[in-house]
Specification:
Elements (H helix, E strand, L loop, with lengths): L18 E2 L11 H7 L5 E8 L6 H18 L3 E6 L2 H8 L7 E3 L6 H9 L3 E4 L7 H9 L5 E3 L8 H12 L3 H16 L2
Parallel strand pairs: 1-2, 2-3, 3-4, 4-5, 5-6
Helix pairs in contact: 4-5, 6-7
Length: about 190
């Protein structure tokens, strides 16, 4: 069994997590008390964050993002981040919180951004969109396995196929990649 750290496929046989949160696309209408009510029965708060490519006002996104980070900090819950065209701002905001773990889901960014996130102790998750971006391919090839996850997100591509492509990019076996993601999963969710 492999880890699929972020999936919308409820029938998966992969090891995954249950998360609750207000996506930045819904920040203007999101109800923070609903997150508070559900948080005790979940593994992480997410997917939350900032998306500066959508039409939701940045101020609304920031308000909901900060409120959810405060909940995660108070309850020592990991966060699963959605970050689109907002990397610098997300990194600035995260400095204000002491979080048990941070996972950038569907990371699309440069090697430099990946290194900065890893230097802060954050994890990066890669999925099918990874393979469309040369700068993200460089990131997935070079970040430490100790900070890497694999995901399907909304893709219908089987998680095993994504593992295969990432293992090939890194020049390692699928088994080695699977062992690393399992170790990362256990570090965060079974500690």
């Amino acid at each position: 069994m492999v880890v699929d750290i972020h999936t919308h496929n409820r029938k998966t046989e992969a090891k995954t997590i249950e998360a609750v949160g207000i996506h930045p696309w819904h920040a203007a209408t999101g109800n923070i008390s609903a997150v508070e009510e559900q948080v005790s029965n979940i593994d992480a708060i997410g997917e939350i964050g900032l998306d500066f490519a959508c039409d939701v006002p940045h101020g609304e996104q920031m308000r909901i993002f900060r409120a959810q980070l405060a909940i995660a900090e108070r309850l020592a819950k990991p966060v699963v981040l959605h970050c689109v065209r907002a990397f610098e701002e997300v990194m600035r905001v995260l400095r204000d919180y002491h979080l048990s773990a941070v996972i950038f889901h569907g990371f699309i960014g440069s090697m430099e951004q990946a290194q900065r996130a890893v230097a802060e102790g954050y994890y990066l998750s890669f999925g099918e969109r990874t393979f469309r971006s040369p700068k993200t391919i460089a990131a997935v090839r070079n970040i430490p396995l100790s900070h890497l996850f694999v995901e399907t997100d909304e893709s219908s591509t089987p998680i095993e196929a994504i593992y295969e492509k990432i293992a090939e990019l890194r020049g390692i076996s699928i088994a080695e990649l699977a062992a690393a993601t399992e170790e990362n999963y256990n570090r965060i969710f079974n500690s």
